[in-house]
Specification:
6-stranded mixed sheet, mainly beta, Immunoglobulin-like, 3 domains, Ig-like_dom, 5-stranded antiparallel sheet, rod-shaped
Length: about 220
């Protein structure tokens, strides 16, 4: 049988004529079995190999068959479209964006790195605690300090391995001060220890003053 050829269907690029490979792509090969079967072989598949291929038989009435190749590609995080960290004030909304590529298109799952549940608040301020959240982006309404931390964007598409990226959420809030004992008594000429506890983000600058408002030196 003469006049058998393989072509890339979408642009009609000729890959082979009978038993001779004519493309410069060295990953392409032709396997002919007893002038009956013409097999197109593509080694080390790449993304660019995705598409349909046509086997064409140049008889009096041209015949053709088309076969298609779908190249499965594991997920990969698109760094240029994914934030690494975000800082908001307490009470504001936060949007954590994470994009991934691959074939099939990867699905995004969110988890907290510390294992705590993700707090999702709706418009009525009702909070739902979830081990993981699916979909992109992750929307956090009216965040509070308890939601601050590292979040993992996990991309998977059933083609191993899955990949993840850490995104840090910082929540700025004013200092909160509390003391365990507001009144401390001690005998004359003895030592006394006064303690106060401060919570804030970013970390605050702390110091003591006396009743006149004068700063007390440390040490």
């Amino acid at each position: 049988m003469q006049g058998v050829g393989w072509l890339k269907a979408e642009d009609q690029t000729i890959l082979s004529l009978h038993e001779r490979v004519v493309t410069e792509n060295r990953r392409i090969d032709i396997d002919v079995d007893n002038n009956t079967y013409w097999r197109l072989k593509i080694r080390q598949l790449q993304r660019s190999d995705k598409g349909c291929y046509m086997c064409q038989i140049n008889t009096n009435v041209m015949k053709k068959q088309i076969g298609c190749v779908d190249v499965k590609v594991p997920p990969d995080i698109k760094d240029e479209e994914t934030i690494s960290d975000i800082t908001v004030k307490e009470g504001e909304n936060a949007t954590l964006a994470c994009k991934a590529k691959g074939n099939p298109l990867p699905k995004i799952t969110w988890k907290r790195e510390d294992g705590h549940k993700i707090a999702i608040k709706n418009k009525s301020k009702k909070t739902t605690l979830l081990d993981k959240v699916r979909g992109e982006p992750l929307l956090l309404n009216k965040v509070d300090r308890s939601q601050m931390g590292h979040y993992l964007c996990i991309a998977s598409n059933d083609v191993p391995p899955a990949v993840s990226k850490r995104i840090t959420l910082n929540v700025n809030f004013s200092p909160v001060v509390w003391v365990t004992n507001q009144m401390v008594s001690a005998p004359l000429n003895t030592h006394v220890r006064l303690e106060c506890f401060v919570e804030s983000f970013p970390i605050s600058v702390n110091y003591w003053t006396n009743e006149k408002g004068e700063m007390i030196p440390q040490g």
